[in-house]
Amino acid sequence: MTQNPIFQRIQALLDRDGITLRDLERGAGIPYSRSYEWNRRENSKPNGQDALTLARFFNVPVGHIMDGDPLVEEDSKENLLHDYGELLPEGRRQAEQYVRFLLQEQRAARKDGPSSGSQG
Questions:
Q1: Are 42 and 1 within 8 A, CB to CB?
Q2: N-to-C CA span, the chain
Q3: Residues of 8-27 as b/e, b for ≥16 C-beta within 10 angstroms?
Q4: For residue 9, which phi and psi values (nearest 5 degrees)?
Q5: For 71-114, how does the pLDDT look when each residue is reduced to its tens digit (9 = 90+)?
């Protein structure tokens, strides 16, 4: 039996994050019986809501899970903005402070480093 390609991608994300289907059930609220069917049946796939839940849980685009779209840096930016939006006000303040700190460090390093004519 050929393994469902959607489940192969889900399994790769589980492996990446070091979690199991049971962990997925607890963390994302998707019943084990449903995710198990994606593994067992070659043509089974998550419904729209489950696909969105999986994407948010794994912090990847829906297209990666459903269609195998490659993960690219732009996706990371989108996910970072989503995560920022979920922070409480104090968390947002801390994130903004840290970004400003990193930018200051980067600018200082450019000023102190050799002049190469390109900006990273």
A1: yes
A2: 48
A3: ebbbebbeeeeeebeebbee
A4: -70, -40
A5: 776 657 777 888 888 889 999 999 999 999 989 988 888 887 65
